[in-house]
Model the fold of this input.
Amino acid sequence: MLQEFKTFIARGNVLDLAVGVIIGAAFGKIVSSLTDDVIMPFIGLITGGIDFSNKYVVLGSVPAGYTGPMTYAGLKAAGVAMFGYGAFLNAVINFLILAFVIFLIVRQANRLMPAKKVAPAGPTEVELLAEIRDALKK
Done:
């Protein structure tokens, strides 16, 4: 089993996958920053200063001794049950940006890669048998 695992790890595809996961995680952080620090503030400016990351509905009760900020992050840290639709909106925008960028990368990679040439089909079985028959007639 150990030898099989070593063979599995030594394959190029596994290493490529590992590199892809690491780069994808770093790229995800860049997209999150783009959404949280550039796009959402711009949308907030257009909508009159609305901060979507702090939009929520409290579903549970706030603890009696809670003295922290009444923000999404503060209440979430206190364990209050909430519906954070602003954070969800940010996550959806992150996903759409990531999906679009991945689409563009795959689209460009498909254009750059040469098309696979289909090998010309050889003679069919019937044609081979006809050739053998003709050769035997001679």
